[in-house]
Amino acid sequence: MKKIVLIAVSVIFAMSWAHAQTSGTLTVTATTSATGGNYAPKNIVAIWIEDNQGNFVKTLLAYAQNRRTHLNTWEASTTAAGSPFNAVDAITGATKTSHATRTCTWNGTDVNGMLVADGNYRLRMELTDKNGTGNFSTFTFTKGLNPENQTPANVPSFSSISINWVPVITGVNDPELDKQYQVYPNPSTGIIKISGDQITGIQVLNHAGALIGQAPSQTIDLTDQPDGIYYLKITTDKGVVTKKVVKK
């Protein structure tokens, strides 16, 4: 019976290696300017992420409240996703009374807090200073294992633009928490066990920081993966611990 259970767990785990999901931070900076509207220099502005098919992923910045309906492109994107003007985790505020450099970040997750798959994404910026459509622009970047730094040419209402994606692998463990969770055997030929209690989730990342699996139990099966270095990101009720393991 134990053998059957282990095989079942291994099959479930193997199915979760489908799409790489790299953790990281996208930092966006742009300096705004007028569109020539009658409310200038007052302006409303939004910056958000869509996937490569144009589906809304997450808003990064939205300085707009009463007049937000004039950010027509942002409204259309969020409405199509079933959540008009969604600004979960975004930098938000009222109408701006002047122009300045705006900075926002994205941690690679959607509005539900789930890390999205690696691939090409669209960064969209929109600004207006009138009761109507203003200027909006779209930039494409790749979320993945490799760092990416873009400095696109100026576009109407947005200049000095910087789009910087930095993937990450691990953080620094709390020493006391680190002692409570162990992985063994390490090195391993493929089957790795995790000791410790109150574990709520386990993510498996490769040597470059790409998320390649979600473990359904405290037994990890890497037998179908190449030899090398892996990281186990263990989420617990007490905090998060990252363990380095070697498969050979």
List the helices and strands and how they pair.
Blueprint: H1 2-15, E1 21-22, E2 24-32, E3 44-51, E4 56-63, H2 72-80, E5 91-93, E6 101-106, E7 119-128, E8 135-143, E9 148-150, E10 158-167, H3 175-179, E11 182-184, E12 191-195, E13 199-206, E14 210-215, E15 219-221, E16 228-236, E17 240-247
How would you characterize this protein structure?
The chain has two domains: 95 residues, Immunoglobulin-like (Sandwich); 144 residues, no CATH class. 11% of the residues lie in helices and 44% in strands. The chain is built from three helices and 17 strands. The chain has a five-stranded antiparallel sheet with strand order 1-14-13-16-17. A five-stranded mixed sheet has the order 5-4-3-7-8, with helices on one face. It has a four-stranded antiparallel sheet with strand order 6-2-10-9, with no helix packed on it. The longest helix is centred in the N-terminal third of the chain and has 14 residues. The radius of gyration is 22 Å and the shape is elongated. It starts with a helix and ends with a strand.
* First-to-last CA distance: 28 Å
Helices, by number, come to 3
Number of strands: 17
Mean pLDDT over the residues = 88
Could you say how many structural domains there are in total? 2
Question: How do the helices and strands follow one another from N- to C-terminus?
Answer: HEEEEHEEEEEEHEEEEEEE
Structural class: mainly beta
* Major sheet: arrangement of strands: 1-14-13-16-17
**Cα-atom Rg, whole angstroms?**
22 Å
Note the main sheet: 5 strands, antiparallel
Which keywords apply here?
248 residues; mainly beta; 2 domains; 5-stranded antiparallel β-sheet; 5-stranded mixed β-sheet; 44% strand; disordered N terminus
